[in-house]
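Q: Sequence in, structure out?
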Amino acid sequence: MIDKYALQDKLKDIIGNCLKEENVILVDLTFQIQKRKSILRILVDEPNGGITLDRCAYLNNAISQLLDRENLIETSYILEVSSPGLDRPLLSPDDFSRCLNRRIRIFLEPSQNGRHEIEGVITSVTEEGLNLESGGEIKYIPFTVIKRAKQVI
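A: Exactly. Output:
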């Protein structure tokens, strides 16, 4: 029997490749093993945001067929493919790049200069962090101190 985390990594790899071919971004993938049925939740989005319900349904069918062919999941499971929504968490440098020139809220850990939270507009993004205009100043925030982040709607 394959380890849950190894299986999740394998699923991310296989499903991620499938979604790249469809020009869709894999935002997040979680696999929860439960007693009767496991749940595979996949959050997807279009490169410029705004994935439709019809597109999610199409991808659900495509991923289901792919998983049937690969036969990686040994138990019965529920497959959920959905949009992350407008207030989705920002997790990767690409997520932050898509929010360039938009207002975001960042929760920091450990706190920076006595602050646990900061809000501002992203002015630039690198692989290591981002520059945020907040309170009339540009502040550099490394990804290593970001506990959670989301776009302000």
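Helices lie at 4-21, 53-70, 93-98.
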